[in-house]
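Allow me, if you will, to draw on your knowledge of protein folds for a short while. I have a record of one protein: its chain in single-letter code and its fold written as discrete structure tokens. I should value your view on which stretches of the chain appear to form regular backbone elements. Thank you for your consideration; the sequence and its tokens are set out here:
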Amino acid sequence: MLDHALQAPGPRPLPAAVEDLLRAEHAPPRLAAHLRQVHDVACDLLDRLAEEVPELPVDRPAVTFGAATHDIGKARHPEELTGPGTRHEATGERVLLSYGVPADLARFAAVHGDWDRPDATVEELLVTVADKVWKGRREPDLEQRVTIAVAAATGREPWDAFLLLDDLLTHLAERADERLAFQAAYPV
């Protein structure tokens, strides 16, 4: 069933290296479906930002990897796939490090739930935005942090940066029901 979640038509496939990690961890199919959804949204978000705000410096490979692996710790804490919990965050970072993933990339697993800290990078904020908006959830304070980064990088007025980001996230959130159905089709 994991292979089906990884290969089924729908969201973009995960990078092969991430698929290998999920297989090695015997990840639940629902986790693979979730990671595909967040990765897909992150790719769409990055594509649109590249079109609309090309001057925003973003490490695209880091964001896409972070989105594809941010919840890998849930392979060891599957109860957090259907209920609350944060144990998967530190576990996910340790798992990724144990497979030789560089620390700057493994960090996404540990910090995606802690986006409001002052040292959060634009890349970390974007992974967290993708992890929210895939299911139609909007987080105003998080979006404000991204708005500030866009305004600073572009010289746009904050209100103009907000409108751009709001339109983009509204568009991404429109397919939330479809994404939730895809994820729900796979067992924990």
